[in-house]
Each structure stands twice: as structure tokens, then as C-alpha cells.
Amino acid sequence: MKVLITGGTGGIGFAVAQQFGKEGHQVILADLSPALLHSKQQELVAQGIDALVQTLDLTSQASIDACASLEVDVLVNNAGIQHVARLDDFPPEKWAQLLQVMLTGPAMLSKVLLPGMRQRGFGRIINVGSIHALVASPFKSAYVAAKHGLLGFSKVVALENADFDFTINTICPAYVRTPLVESQIADQCREHGLTEQQVIEQIMLAPMPQKAFIGVDEIAATASFLCQNAARHITAQTLVLDGGWTAR
């Protein structure tokens, strides 16, 4: 299979690329920085993985359209950004950027790749969502809105494409210790007036009975499972890796 991973140079995206690559699939890292893409590609190649790169800006329709010719079997919509602020102080341009990168961009990328999947009779779309697709936290209105929207989008696309071997699902992990989360810790310190350790214990891990960050390997393995024959009838679903958070 050929697997396209957006945000492929980041913590989760790169782990997903390694997982699929080690299983013998060709992976395509998609991200903004050509230099970083090249560096991460070399890392994968050194591990014996068949890796390509695609410069992709999810805020540009032309950049998204350029992916149409890639003949991708599996799309992993992983790219994400964050901005932490009260709605009163939320810059409109930041709101628009978050929705574009994490909802509109994935939708438009899915749109350009679906015809090829249909033509070949096989396709898998895996969205990397978040616990915030199911619950909310203060100061994250745009992020929560985008991730909630991703679930509804996935259900519609599943219904529209149920007539061939196609599935679309969303993996929703609780906090993963990635660079994106590291920056959130600093933002939360500022908004709540807490120390870094207090943010981790009192905000991030407090709702999770297991009190642990989710590993990137868990997300990567879940993505891999969703592409296996045993998961061929799992579609329009939300797979929650939350350590018991939503059981309360």
C-alpha cells in the first residue's frame, strides 16, 4: 500500500510512518518544510523504509490539489496546530487557521484522493483526532470545534462511500507527549497561573484514571490495525485511546 501522512515529520506522524514502513508499505511524508521532510525521509530510508516526501500546505487548495496524482491507498490526516486563549482574546485569523488545517484541509485532501481510491476499489482514511473531539477544555475553542467537526465529517464520508472497499475512522487519543503538547503546557501555565508540573497533573492527566500520556506507538499501531482485513467493516467509528477519561 501507499500511505500518505500529513504532519508526517511530527511525533505522531513520524511514528505512523515508521509503523507502516516497517510493515513493508511505501510511505509519503507530507508537511510544510522541505528541509525537515528531507531530513526525516533520510531517517526512514536509513531504517530500510521506502519513503517519499510531499510538500503540503493545508491552507492552500493548490497545494492540496497537487496531491491528487499520488495514487494513495491510505490517507492519514494527522497534521495539527494549537492556539490556547479565551474566546474573547482569540484572534480571528488563528481561529480560521486551526479550522483550515484540522477540518477543511483534511476534508479537501480526502476529496482529491477519493476518486483514485474508488477507481482502484480500495481506500482507507484515518483521521488523528483527539480526546477533544469528545470533550472540551477551556481556552481551546477552535481546536475543540475542529476535532468535533472531524467526527461528523467522517460519518458522512463513510456513508457516501460504503459501496466499495473503503473505510474512514478517527483515532482520538488523550494527551500525547509531543512538541505540540509541550507548547500547550507552556500556554496552560500562562492561562491558569500554574507550574508545568501542576498543568500536567491538575489539567492534562487529572481526568484520566490511568494517569499517563498516550504513546505514539499506540496511535501508530491502531492506524495499522484499521488498514488490516480484520478491520474492513470498521468504518465511521471513533477509536478512543484515553486511559478511561470518557468512562466518567
From TrEMBL:
Family assignment from sequence similarity: Belongs to the short-chain dehydrogenases/reductases (SDR) family.
Highest rank taxon of the organism: Bacteria
Gene Ontology MF terms: 3-hydroxybutyrate dehydrogenase activity
A Pfam family the protein falls into: adh_short
Name of the molecule in the record: 3-hydroxybutyrate dehydrogenase
Enzyme Commission number(s) from the entry: 1.1.1.30
Enzyme class: oxidoreductase
Coiled-coil ranges (or none): none
SUPFAM superfamilies listed in its UniProt record: NAD(P)-binding Rossmann-fold domains
Keywords: Oxidoreductase
Gene3D superfamilies named among the record's database cross-references: NAD(P)-binding Rossmann-like Domain (3.40.50.720)
